[in-house]
């Protein structure tokens, strides 16, 4: 589907793998110029090469630690210097540590908030003047862990809940300043992160990865795990004018895992 995004410019954080990579690929297929930001320069280069080969879309990379205060300002400046504008910000970087609450250290908590919550705040603040100038959009990739607390996801759940509140607050500002701000809450999606979680559960439960995967799926109460391209398609829609009346939405894409209001 042609979403009318051709020629626009996007910055996608956490774009070296998983959902960030899928989102960048989807944007490129729609003709969007994409700046990929993450820590791993080599992986970013691989993703950029794939995008260029498949979509022949303009693509640049920015390698840096998104937990560091100055990094997001530099990433936004890099994207604007490359493309002359910034229409779309996708905040996606932000894996947080799982585990027994009593085993999680202050450093674990600081790291979780530094990357995801503060990283999203800093990226949005840095990008906002550019987005305001063109009537752009912010899309926060959050997670259904925000919807209900679980004892092994205390860091991620609380960070995600904070990001959802931040999304609503920025959407309120965005109504006045012409910037659309929305969030997507993915459920369990087939990425490297899911594979690592399954391996962790298999070790914790003393079983095989296949059994752990089946048990996790049963606990989710869904027919299957999601695909990265399903999240990417929703992001592209939210970035387009077809979603011009969508503001402050918190959209669960989880196969029906979350059954709360």
What order do the helices and strands come in, and which of them pair?
Blueprint: E1 9-13, H1 18-29, E2 33-38, H2 41-55, E3 59-63, H3 71-83, E4 88-91, H4 106-134, E5 137-141, H5 154-177, E6 180-186, H6 192-205, H7 209-220, H8 228-239, E7 250-253
Parallel strand pairs: 1-2, 1-4, 2-3, 4-5, 5-6, 6-7
Helix pairs in contact: 1-2, 1-8, 3-4, 4-5, 6-7
Keywords:
50% helix; alpha/beta; 7 strands; 261 residues
How many beta-strand runs? 7
How large is the radius of gyration?
18 Å
Give the helix tally.
8
**How would you describe the shape?**
globular
Taken as a percent bin, the fraction of beta residues is 5-15%
Largest sheet: number of strands, sense, barrel closure:
7 strands, parallel
Which assembly state applies to the chains in this document? single chain
Instruction: Give the N-terminus to C-terminus distance in angstroms.
Output: 31 Å
Task: Give a verbal description of the structure.
The protein has eight helices and seven strands. The chain has helices at 18-29, 41-55, 71-83, 106-134, 154-177, 192-205, 209-220, 228-239; strands spanning 9-13, 33-38, 59-63, 88-91, 137-141, 180-186, 250-253. The chain has a seven-stranded parallel β-sheet, with helices on both faces. It starts with 8 loop residues before the first strand and ends in an 8-residue tail after the last strand. The relative contact order is 0.14. The model has no long low-confidence stretch (mean pLDDT 95).
């Amino acid at each position: 589907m042609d979403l009318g995004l051709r020629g626009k410019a996007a910055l996608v954080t956490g774009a070296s793998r998983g959902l960030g990579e899928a989102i960048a690929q989807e944007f490129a297929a729609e003709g969007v110029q994409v700046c990929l930001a993450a820590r791993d320069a080599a992986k970013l280069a691989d993703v950029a090469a794939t995008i260029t080969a498949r979509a022949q879309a303009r693509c640049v990379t920015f390698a840096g630690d998104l937990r560091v205060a100055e990094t997001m300002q530099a990433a936004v400046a890099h994207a604007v210097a490359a493309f002359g504008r910034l229409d779309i910000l996708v905040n996606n970087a932000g894996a947080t540590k799982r585990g027994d609450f009593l085993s999680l250290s202050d450093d674990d908590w600081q790291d979780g908030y530094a990357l995801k919550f503060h990283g999203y705040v800093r990226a949005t603040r840095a990008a906002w003047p550019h987005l305001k100038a063109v009537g752009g959009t912010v899309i926060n990739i959050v997670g259904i862990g925000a919807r209900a607390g679980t004892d092994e996801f205390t860091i991620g759940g609380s960070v995600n809940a904070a990001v959802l509140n931040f999304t609503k607050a920025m959407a309120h500002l965005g109504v006045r300043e012409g910037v659309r701000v929305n969030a997507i809450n993915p459920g369990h999606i087939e990425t490297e992160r899911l594979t690592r979680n399954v391996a962790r559960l298999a070790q914790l439960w003393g079983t095989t990865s296949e059994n752990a995967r089946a048990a996790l799926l049963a606990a989710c109460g869904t027919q299957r795990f999601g695909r990265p391209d399903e999240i990417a398609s929703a992001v592209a829609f939210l970035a387009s004018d077809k979603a011009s009346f969508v503001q402050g939405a918190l959209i669960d894409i989880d196969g029906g895992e979350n059954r709360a209001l």
